[in-house]
Amino acid sequence: QESLRLEPKNVQAQRALAAFLRSTGRAAEAEAPLKAVAEIAKDNASRLALADYYIAGQRVPDALPILKTVVATTDGLAEATLRLAAIDYTQNKKAEAHKAVDDVLVKYPKHTQMLLLKARFLLLESRLDDALTKAKAAVAETPESAAAQFLLGTIYQAKQDSANAIAAQNGVLELLLAN
Q1: Which of 88, 149, 152, 147 lies closest to 123, judged by CA?
Q2: pTM of the model
Q3: pLDDT over 70 at 158, yes or no
């Protein structure tokens, strides 16, 4: 905190303070440095970090204006849409969530995280064949993604396809052990 007293606009010091506060169980105190970083850096990564903080603290109304600002930018469209669509889906606005994801997938058809979110939505709706298609596309795009492999295995398990479920889960273990 001494470095912040001397240099209050030091982004790295503000980020370090926020991380320290969150890791020591003082998350409520992390809001001020996260806000400072978003205001000083004026970049989407910092804005998304603040929005994620609000979402984690179940303060979605505070996150929404930030996400709507970020989604309007070219480089923030996909990342903000991931969060906005997940919020919509949890608020039972499923059609809006699907549309938001689909719109981004038209622009970025190989966006792994967007494919995974779509697959999760479809899995929750028991649309297993469609979910499997999206999960396979995510794995094909990013074979080193343990999350994609795990979701693929989960979908196979839901389809009661034990052999492929085990193969996918073994893929997860191989990826985790390789790192």
Answers
A1: 152
A2: 0.88
A3: yes
